[in-house]
Amino acid sequence: MFEKIHQWIIIYDTTRGRTYDKIYAHDPKIMEVECADAGCSGNAQRNYGLKLAADGFIYFLDDDNIIHPEFWNLTDQFNPAYFYTFNQQRIKSGQILLGNTIARCRIDTAMFVVHKQHICDIVWRVNEYTADGYFICDVDALPANKGKHRFLNVVASYYNFLTT
Hints:
The protein is α/β, with parallel strands linked by helices. It is built from four helices and seven strands, in the order ββαβαβββααβ. The protein has helices spanning 43-52, 71-74, 116-119, 131-141, and strands spanning 8-13, 30-35, 57-59, 83-90, 96-97, 112-115, 149-159.
């Protein structure tokens, strides 16, 4: 499935003196960079990644998550004219969070894919824990994005998969 990816950008959070070994230097599709900008929940690192992403669809994942296998089946449906939300499987509870409502605390980071053209100058609120909800709400609220949201009624993301 990696052939569907143009570039994977990994942003290592080096605040508080953290260090990381770059283990993907051999792969031209993977860019590993460091960011020591302060913030909450990796939001400053996401903003840095947005600066590095020149074009195309952008999908954010947290460091405690993996790509849901069903996600790969959605990628052929993605059209650059739209941005997409989908459902999420909550690992610990087994519940499904529906991605049909763009609202803070209703959409998690791994539940949306946005084309760079829909982001404009929107950034993640670096000190806000629910910045993912604010971010997708800001994308949806842009006048140029009116009517560009598509909800795909399928479970295609996990919540905190690696922390179970």
